[in-house]
């Protein structure tokens, strides 16, 4: 039986954010195709707050490269936030890693063990995918640059869910001994995101690199990197100060910036 949750409620989410509530504008809707798509199209907040959109039922969740992100009523937490930033030579490189780190830290704070990060955008627990992240940049004319950060977390995956993912799927019911209320969970995630986004905008990904590396799912393991029409094997040597993947290859250290690339353990 899926766990029963109270409905998502902006006032409860804001209450959970405490002093940080003033940095956020929070909206909840019953149903949408993709919270990312909604926020990419939304007008920026005139007060410059981080805009959050959470959805009870997301019917067309997206991953990278046209892939789908699946969610289930009562079984998922799906939301996006739109965050403005000053673009620079190193910004916003590494943003998906920052978002993943925020999710990982939140889960750890709740008692989750074995939380790992898979470059560039997945949160795993003991090798199984628990959460997905999709970053989309918005650069409208006359607007500040902003990024929409979409996050889907599995709370309870139905037994008959057909998800084709290497390593399998994890859900929070299986990872935590007690599940928090979804409003509390979302407030905790937003609070951690706000903390890490602050650090990231003032000091860049370099300040968070060590924390990401500690949770690197493939640290020092043989991996296969593949993109459109190419692949490269090597040993995963972590990430650099821009969040680029470092791959030890027979020809030396290769640096790979995020793009349409998949990382897998070598067969
Ligand atoms: P990879 O890096 O593993 O090649 P990706 O990071 O590009 O994949 P994403 O775009 O993050 O993948 O997520 C989409 C993929 O995640 C889907 O193709 C599917 O395999 C898997 N997936 C979809 N829904 C879920 C879910 N609820 N839980 C876990 N995995 C899912």
Describe this structure in words.
This protein has 267 residues and is an alpha+beta fold. It has 6 helices and 12 strands. The protein has 2 domains: 10-213, Bira Bifunctional Protein, Domain 2 (BirA Bifunctional Protein, domain 2, 2-Layer Sandwich); 218-265, Roll (SH3 type barrels). The strands form 2 sheets. The protein has a 7-stranded mixed beta sheet, with helices on both faces. The longest helix has 22 residues, at 182-203. Adenosine-5'-triphosphate (ATP) binds at residues 63-65, 67-70, 121-122, 129, 132, 152, 154, 163-165, 169, 262.
List the helices and strands and how they pair.
Layout: H1 10-17, E1 24-32, H2 35-41, E2 50-58, E3 76-84, H3 95-109, E4 115-118, E5 122-125, E6 128-138, E7 146-154, H4 172-175, H5 182-203, H6 209-214, E8 222-227, E9 230-239, E10 245-249, E11 252-256, E12 262-265
Parallel strand pairs: 1-2
Antiparallel strand pairs: 2-3, 3-7, 4-5, 5-6, 6-7, 8-9, 8-12, 9-10, 10-11
Helix pairs in contact: 1-5, 3-5
The structure holds adenosine-5'-triphosphate (ATP).
**Strand segment count:** 12
> CATH architecture of the largest domain, please?
2-Layer Sandwich
Task: Please write the CATH class name of the largest domain.
Answer: Alpha Beta
- The overall pLDDT, averaged over residues, is 94
Which class of secondary structure composition applies to the elements?
Answer: alpha+beta
Order of helices and strands: HEHEEHEEEEHHHEEEEE
Task: Say which molecules are bound, naming each kind only once.
Answer: adenosine-5'-triphosphate
Q: For the record, what is the CATH homologous superfamily label of the largest domain?
A: Bira Bifunctional Protein, Domain 2
CATH fold topology of the largest domain: BirA Bifunctional Protein, domain 2
Give the % helix: 10-25%
